[in-house]
Amino acid sequence: MALVSLASPLSPRLLNAFQTFSRSIARLRTPARRPGVSESSAVQPGARWTATLRSFRGVVRNGCAHCLEAALFAAVVLEAHGFPPLVLSFESIDQLDHVIFVYERGGRWGSVARSRDPGLHGRKAVYATPRALALSYFDAYVDFTGRITGYALVNLGALMGDYDWRLADTNVWKVERMLLDHPHGCIRSSDRRVDALRARYRAFRARFPGRKPLFYRQRNRWTPLPEEFLDEG
What we know:
Elements: H1 12-25, H2 56-62, H3 67-79, E1 86-92, E2 98-105, E3 108-112, E4 123-127, H4 130-135, H5 138-141, E5 148-155, H6 156-159, H7 173-181, E6 185-186, H8 191-207
Antiparallel strand pairs: 1-2, 1-5, 2-3, 3-4, 5-6
């Protein structure tokens, strides 16, 4: 994951917190049926799933996160090294939206992200604009129901004011509400293209139950995937 290499070495305290988080993220398998959340922590059989939106402190304390919590975690860590707390919010027709941390380096844009889907993880800093970065997620977003319809680049530091989204002990639902209400730029796409992508996805999942595809273009622009995805197809 590019999180550690984006800036100067992390302090021992933050590095330990990051390593704890990275080990825990491998267990995030349960889809969250909630706007702004594309994954959640694993739920034990018979347990009741509870929606969360934890701050950096909450993620470190609980050792698990969904995509928006992962983006907030990355924003706090990298803000300490001079990166503005920028996130990219995606809107999808199935309301299973996705949020990632994004950064600019050398005039190029990249991202830090976690998801239950391998194609929605991070990207190297090779994209000329935030829109180009957003478009790099389009194909991999198309599964049984997904299709990106919009994106928004948001500076959490500027828009959240004095609200404590970084270290709050409670859920920070105001961040999600702000992202849902924030204007998103339109991403248009042809039905023919989406139908072809969806048919290919369905065929792969039917042939390889329990696996996620890795057959997308420009995978050389992705950041390294967690080990659990490396045997995917």
